Amino acid sequence: MDKIKYVRKRGIFILLSAILPATVLFSLSVGRYPIAVGDILQYLLSGKYTDENVPVLITQVRMPRIVMAILAGGALSVSGAAYQGVFRNPIVSPDILGVSSGAGFGAALAILFFPGLAGLQISAFVLGLLSVSLSLIISKSMAAYHDRTLMLVLSGMIVGSLFSALISLMKYIADGESKLPEITFWLMGNLSAASMVEIRYILPVVIIALIPILLTSWKLNILSFGDEEARAMGLNPDRLRFTVICCASLLTASIVSVTGLIGWVGLIIPHFARFVVGPNHKQLFPASFLIGSSFMLCVDDIARSAFPLEIPLGIITSVIGAPLFFIIIRMSSKKIW
User: Fold this and answer.
1) Whole-prediction pTM value?
2) DSSP state string for 60-106
């Protein structure tokens, strides 16, 4: 039986690993200016091309956006799976500690007072991490009298609500003709400004945050049985939670600072991955990254190709995510999976 499960999961990972490059190839071909798959393969493999627009479209327009979509979908999905493992709650998402609200406020603040793409991303990143730090500080001050996990969730609600109010304040005082539309569009999420320069800055952060999460995946399996069992196995639950929360928050803040707010990905993708490969975090994290990357690529393809005007990613992920989450919950309750 164990051998059958091993072969099945290995086949699943092979399939997921094949779906991602196939999705990348499809994403390179679709857009306002369609490119034949044969022309793409010819250019990528030999550097030759018959259409003079192919090199520019692939290397400067579509490839940076595709790489950013892979990083965004994968990082948000792993972050969501990590948060769900830490809190032992399947409805937890990466913004539970207010990181998305903090990053949103940082972006709105930069748009109003520090114009420029670099200032926006730095401000969003710093405020995103600051919001998580505030949540941790508040929860620690109350942890002596209450359950620590519960205090973390409540602290995240407090900080998230505070920064959401500050975002509303920024939108209220913003110029209605220029600044307000810019803030609103950024908050809905998009990859239109993705570039290889941004990827070079964000990729090391994503890798640095991913490594500890992957290395502690087996510890999260033990933590799922409870703090007492974890201590009996020689683990420090509080230290483990702090490490995973910091790394997952770093993942989310780095992505949100570039792409804006993209909801549902960190919630529904870990659920789907859990149904596919099981609850073992050693397999759940890689599966979440692969599925999340492919999902985000498909969402971005819809955003830039399905309508005359580009649709913000947050709108599409919400339209797809809400019914998909309902279907997943229904299938789970009926034990179809």
Assistant:
1) 0.92
2) IIIHHHHHHHHHHHHHHHHHHHHHHHHHT-TT--TTTTSHHHHHHHH
